[in-house]
Design a protein that fits this description.
Oligomer: single chain
Radius of gyration: 21 Å
CATH architecture of the largest domain: 3-Layer(aba) Sandwich
CATH class of the largest domain: Alpha Beta
Strand content: 15-25%
CATH superfamily of the largest domain: HUPs
Shape: elongated
Distance between the termini: 15 Å
């Protein structure tokens, strides 16, 4: 979606610390892009028309208003000049946010971190949004953010959905005035499959095949970036090719980045499967927020 005054960054809130971190990120992103911020609280209290037992006088509307008013105040304290709209909508979170995504530039949501494992576990609703939302979805982990680095990162693998993610990453780096790091992963060749370390011919063959695979990946990366480089020559690009597991490489390379961008082949159905294992797992392990960009449906 084009960035115009009529589009907004939508931040989903619920009063939790995780959603507050997502709100902070969304406010900063809206400022950098020159867009409005729309704060949405989807209020799905199951007993909306009757007070919860043990809470006499509970008013659902008042509770929801307090959530969005506090969120709006937080956003304006962070970015005083920001144009902010805050609403609460009665309904299930997933369909409400899916409707919001149809007119949003980006949907920003928070994800809780399992501190014992230092990993983020997206909820079923989050996975559904990542697969079915009509706009890119940014998942902000519930961890203390580091200082801004002025760098966006995108994972590139030569696929059609990675191509869409690459275009969005270039536009994002351009809008935010940041550099872009494009990372491609080459699996290389395992030495174990080519013989033991004592068998030097086999080792040499494995190293040669790995070098060839890396070179092929480097060519793929350059070709994948060529069109966007021409369209946005003002964006400074760093091309990186690494050998290893995609999730590990991408997560490591994102340690000094403000945002990681990945593609999704989501088409509906089983969200966890169709999101893609790499996209799903980098969300769990990335040290920075992750934007999942899905190719538009035809």
């Amino acid at each position: 979606m084009a960035e115009t005054a009529h589009t907004a960054i939508v931040a989903a809130v619920n009063g939790s610390p995780a959603s507050e971190r997502a709100l902070d990120w969304a406010a900063d992103d809206a400022r950098q892009r020159g867009l409005r911020l729309r704060i949405v609280y989807a209020f799905d209290w199951p007993l909306y028309h009757s007070p919860p037992r043990g809470l006499p006088g509970f008013d659902a509307d008042e509770f929801a208003r307090r959530i969005v008013d506090e969120a709006r105040r937080r956003a304006l304290e962070r970015v005083p000049e920001l144009a902010v709209e805050a609403v609460h909508i009665t309904g299930d979170r997933e369909p409400v946010l899916l409707l919001e995504s149809q007119k949003a530039h980006t949907l920003v949501i928070g994800a809780h971190r399992m501190r014992t494992m230092d990993a983020v576990f997206p909820s079923s609703t989050t996975l559904a949004l990542l697969v079915s939302a009509s706009c890119p979805v940014v998942v902000v982990p519930d961890r203390e953010p580091g200082p801004p680095t002025g760098r966006v990162m995108v994972g590139v693998d030569g696929s059609a959905h990675a191509e869409v993610a690459t275009g969005w990453a270039f536009a994002t780096a351009d809008a935010r005035g940041e550099d872009l790091r494009a990372v491609a992963v080459s699996k290389g060749v395992s030495r174990e499959r080519s013989g033991t370390l004592g068998e030097s011919p086999a080792v040499a063959e494995a190293e040669a095949r790995t070098a060839a695979a890396v070179e092929e990946t480097r060519r793929m990366l350059a070709e994948s970036l060529a069109g966007e480089r021409e369209r946005r020559p003002q964006v400074r690009v760093e091309e990186v090719v690494k050998v290893g597991h995609p999730v590990e490489v991408l997560s490591t390379m994102a340690e000094d980045c403000d945002l990681m961008v990945v593609g999704s082949r989501g088409r509906g159905g089983f969200a966890g499967m169709l999101l893609g294992s790499v996209s799903r797992n980098v969300i769990s392990h990335s040290p920075c927020p992750v934007a999942v960009v899905r190719a538009p449906r035809h």
